[in-house]
Design goal:
By secondary structure, the protein is an alpha/beta fold. The protein is built from 9 helices and 14 strands. 44% of the residues are buried. It binds nicotinamide-adenine-dinucleotide.
């Protein structure tokens, strides 16, 4: 199994799972946001290898590491939706050019399976909530558009070259080793100033959150399901059935830190978004995921509480 972005937040948890199940794992990462520390426990293992490589750049050397790979779990990307309005080129390169290079390297080495970390942002602002996989995709951020473009590129490789693909549209994934997102932002701000908490947006943004342990479990379960079903290309929403507001998250973080800060709202758009391209309401329909015999262990609120506990020790 080859995990791109395997030194990052989700990727490294995936590595832990694959390694602890006895797998043979290659990580490809350029350490732009990931860290070797996240996978250091496996460094001595003969079943484990880390390749430092930037996937934006075509590399012939990299092809060697794709030899005999059963599946590429493509998790390398710049996941900061927030920067995508100001720096669209970063997302185009990190998330689309890199995906193309990965697909090309897989084609040259006949790698049969791709698991792709896509995102709920591909739906944009759906009128149907919870949103099923069949809902039209109309992203409102460059990040979402580039994820969708990557999905389409993968689907074309499925049609043209017989690749098998599992496309996973994740909700917000949270937990230990996360370096971005609302919980990390609140903890950092409250450590700097315990009496005031700046909240991006009007605080009414309401989204679905999933703990990393559930996200990894769902990912491995779906890959095994896809193998069993000999699936050609399947798209799944991976998230929770409930959602929480940003103010509720602020309350959970402040409560866990024993603080009662004054909330200062900073809407970045006239309708109270946290940044241009921020989707205010996100809840995925996970019926398709559940129909395969899997359901999350923790709801959004419990996932936030657990992630806050974990991140308070790390941030
Ligand atoms: P992360 O930043 O922790 O991990 C991304 C990893 O990719 C990092 O280790 C980084 O160094 C590496 N990387 C980035 N650009 C690279 C390049 N050009 N070449 C090689 N390596 C590169 O982010 P994450 O939250 O773990 O996200 C992992 C994947 O899941 C991303 O594709 C992201 O878009 C997707 N995703 C994340 C969430 C979430 O809530 N965290 C939600 C939906 C989708």
């Amino acid at each position: 199994m080859l995990v791109t972005g395997g030194a990052g937040f989700i990727g490294s948890h995936l590595v832990d799972k694959l390694m602890s199940e006895g797998g043979q794992v290659v990580v490809v990462d350029n350490f732009s946001s990931g860290s070797l520390r996240n996978v250091e426990r496996w460094l001595g293992s003969p079943r484990f290898k880390v390749i430092a490589s930037d996937l934006k750049v075509e590399s012939l050397e990299l092809r060697e590491h794709f030899r005999d790979v059963e599946a590429v779990l493509h998790f390398a990307a710049n996941p900061e939706v927030r920067i995508s309005a100001a720096e669209p080129r970063v997302h185009f390169n990190e998330n689309l050019v890199a995906t193309f290079n990965v697909l090309e390297t897989m084609r040259r080495r006949d790698v049969p399976w791709m698991v792709f970390a896509s995102s709920s942002t591909v739906y944009g602002e759906p009128k149907t909530i919870p949103t099923p996989e069949s809902y039209p995709t109309e992203p409102i951020s460059v990040y979402g558009t580039v994820k969708l473009a990557a999905e389409e590129l993968i689907k074309t490789y499925v049609r043209l070259y017989g690749l098998h693909a599992l496309i996973l549209r994740y909700a917000n994934i949270i937990g230990s080793r996360s370096t971005h997102g609302v919980i990390v932002d609140f903890i950092r701000k409250l450590r700097e100033n315990p009496s005031v908490l700046e909240i991006l947006g009007d605080g009414t943004q309401r989204k679905s959150y999933m703990h990393i342990s559930d996200a990894i479990d769902a990912t491995v379960h779906l890959y095994l399901w896809a193998l069993k079903e000999k699936a050609s290309c399947e798209v799944f929403n991976v998230g929770n059935e409930d959602w929480v507001t940003v103010v509720e998250i602020a309350d959970i973080v402040s409560g866990a830190m024993g603080l009662k800060p004054k909330y200062v709202f900073k809407p970045m758009t006239p309708d109270g978004r946290g940044w241009p391209g921020d989707v205010k309401f996100m809840l995925l329909d996970i019926s398709k995921l559940k129909s395969t015999g899997w359901a999350p262990q923790m709801n959004s609120r419990r996932a936030v509480e657990k992630a806050v506990g974990e991140l308070l020790k790390e941030v």
